């Protein structure tokens, strides 16, 4: 029996992971841990990564209509305004450089990961499925194995689960549905889309709270997205990775458990063994209230797939993302999070990596933030100086005007006397203004 098969049998949904056992009950969520999630990719990072240095260039005013986007990579025909199109998805030629191989694992390899007993159960299950009145061809070997794993190789339970999905497929209209009807009318209602493949060739879905304000009906969009992700899986890859940006999460608006539960239940009931990882970036403190409400509804295996990471704190995306994502896709996410944090628009339309590269450790990130802060401070100072200068100049002009006016009122005889005095008085003012200017010049030189 292979170790992989052991891993899979322990991945079924009835079995409870160690952290829940130790707690004795499932009522109180443990502090978020990334251990389980980290284990999955640890040990696979022996290959030295080659970081590309040359990227295509795009004119800054590039429009979506100027690009020949590979249709299969985009769910919608028009993109959300908050979405920068990653350069590697701008054309068939670019995407071919990052596409995974067509076959990552053959069926023989997949079933070979199960032990003899599991294989026998599997064959029995497939025969049962084929006898059912709801049976359809799409419930193939791969499909059946996922349901069987999700129900710990219990044929009865797996059959019941698959039957429910067969019904759901009809009720939901899953086969016919290709696009979210809300986003078809306005692509700025939801932000959830495919952005490439991770290091294990799993399709990655990016979601953002800020760029998707619609909250009442996220299920249709999510299901269409899942369908799209599945279409982007090479043979032998069965899971997807979902990354959510919590920037702009509002507990008042987003903290309703009922909203997310529909999506969670749909994944658990109808997409078993599909969620590879759910990465939550920058969840705010109040999110834990929602997480607590969700906790008991999320099965223990799904829970271990959820990971919490931060852009400016530990666990830090600059340390965890390199384990999971190739350079191009993690760079896209780093820049997207920073843009979202500063509420910046998706400009220019096409994203290319920062030529200066990205931090690789939390400490490097701290240094970068420090440098950014110092630069911001300098910028603010320069703006203040410029404002002061402008004010001084305005004051000077107004003083001058007032003096001119009073000059007009006074007698001709007094005129000359006064003028001499004025000139003498304005001299120190001019000197002060000149001084300010030098200081401001120095400030901008420092930049
Ligand atoms: Zn939508």
UniProtKB/TrEMBL annotation:
<protein>
    <submittedName>
        <fullName>CRAL/TRIO, N-terminal domain/CRAL/TRIO domain containing protein, putative</fullName>
    </submittedName>
</protein>
<dbReference type="InterPro" id="IPR036273">
    <property type="entry name" value="CRAL/TRIO_N_dom_sf"/>
</dbReference>
<feature type="domain" description="CRAL-TRIO">
    <location>
        <begin position="194"/>
        <end position="337"/>
    </location>
</feature>
<feature type="region of interest" description="Disordered">
    <location>
        <begin position="1"/>
        <end position="63"/>
    </location>
</feature>
<dbReference type="Pfam" id="PF03765">
    <property type="entry name" value="CRAL_TRIO_N"/>
</dbReference>
<feature type="compositionally biased region" description="Basic and acidic residues">
    <location>
        <begin position="361"/>
        <end position="399"/>
    </location>
</feature>
<dbReference type="InterPro" id="IPR001251">
    <property type="entry name" value="CRAL-TRIO_dom"/>
</dbReference>
<feature type="region of interest" description="Disordered">
    <location>
        <begin position="348"/>
        <end position="447"/>
    </location>
</feature>
<dbReference type="InterPro" id="IPR052578">
    <property type="entry name" value="PI_Transfer_CRAL-TRIO"/>
</dbReference>
<feature type="compositionally biased region" description="Low complexity">
    <location>
        <begin position="424"/>
        <end position="434"/>
    </location>
</feature>
<dbReference type="Pfam" id="PF00650">
    <property type="entry name" value="CRAL_TRIO"/>
</dbReference>
<feature type="compositionally biased region" description="Polar residues">
    <location>
        <begin position="435"/>
        <end position="447"/>
    </location>
</feature>
<feature type="compositionally biased region" description="Basic residues">
    <location>
        <begin position="400"/>
        <end position="411"/>
    </location>
</feature>
<feature type="compositionally biased region" description="Basic and acidic residues">
    <location>
        <begin position="1"/>
        <end position="22"/>
    </location>
</feature>
<dbReference type="InterPro" id="IPR036865">
    <property type="entry name" value="CRAL-TRIO_dom_sf"/>
</dbReference>
<feature type="compositionally biased region" description="Basic and acidic residues">
    <location>
        <begin position="412"/>
        <end position="422"/>
    </location>
</feature>
<dbReference type="InterPro" id="IPR011074">
    <property type="entry name" value="CRAL/TRIO_N_dom"/>
</dbReference>
<dbReference type="GO" id="GO:0008526">
    <property type="term" value="F:phosphatidylinositol transfer activity"/>
</dbReference>
């Amino acid at each position: 029996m292979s170790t992989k098969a052991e891993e899979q049998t322990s991945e079924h949904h009835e079995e409870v992971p160690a952290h829940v056992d130790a707690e004795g009950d499932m009522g109180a969520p443990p502090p978020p841990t990334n251990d389980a999630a980290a284990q999955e990719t640890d040990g696979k990072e022996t290959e030295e990564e080659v970081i590309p240095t040359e990227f295509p260039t795009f004119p800054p005013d590039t429009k979506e209509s100027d690009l020949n986007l590979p249709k299969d990579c985009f769910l919608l025909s028009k993109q959300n305004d908050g979405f920068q199109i990653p350069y590697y998805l701008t054309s068939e030629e670019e995407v071919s450089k990052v596409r995974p191989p067509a076959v990552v694992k053959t069926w023989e390899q997949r079933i070979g990961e199960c032990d003899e007993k599991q294989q026998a159960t599997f064959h029995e299950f497939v025969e049962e499925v084929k006898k059912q009145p709801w049976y359809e061809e799409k419930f193939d070997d791969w499909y059946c194995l996922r349901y069987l794993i999700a129900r710990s190789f219990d044929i009865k339970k797996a059959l019941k689960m698959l039957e429910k999905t067969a019904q759901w497929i009809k009720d939901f209209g899953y086969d016919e549905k290709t696009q979210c009807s809300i986003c078809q009318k306005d692509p700025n209602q939801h932000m959830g889309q495919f952005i490439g493949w991770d290091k294990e060739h799993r399709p990655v879905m990016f979601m953002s709270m800020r760029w998707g304000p619609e909250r009442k009906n996220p299920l249709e969009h999510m299901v269409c997205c899942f369908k799209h992700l599945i279409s982007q899986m090479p043979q032998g890859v069965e899971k997807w990775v979902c990354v959510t940006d919590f920037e702009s999460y509002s507990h008042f608006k987003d903290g309703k458990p009922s909203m997310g539960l529909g999506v969670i239940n749909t994944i658990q009931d109808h997409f078993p063994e599909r969620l590879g990882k759910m990465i939550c970036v920058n969840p705010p403190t109040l999110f834990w209230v929602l997480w607590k409400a969700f906790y008991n509804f999320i099965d223990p295996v799904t829970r271990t797939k959820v990971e919490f990471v931060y852009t400016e704190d530990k666990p830090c995306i600059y340390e965890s993302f390199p384990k999971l994502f190739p350079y191009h896709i993690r760079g896209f996410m780093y820049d997207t999070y920073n843009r979202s944090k500063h509420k910046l628009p998706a400009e220019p339309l096409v994203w290319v990596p920062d030529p200066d590269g990205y931090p690789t450790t939390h400490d490097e990130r701290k240094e970068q933030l420090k440098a950014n802060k110092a630069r911001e401070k300098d910028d603010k100072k320069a703006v203040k100086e410029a404002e002061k200068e402008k004010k001084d100049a305005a004051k000077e002009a107004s003083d001058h005007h007032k003096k001119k006016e009073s000059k007009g009122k006074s007698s001709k005889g007094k005129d000359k006397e006064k003028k001499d005095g004025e000139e003498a008085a304005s001299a120190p003012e001019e000197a002060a203004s000149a001084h300010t200017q030098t200081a401001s010049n120095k400030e901008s030189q420092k930049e």
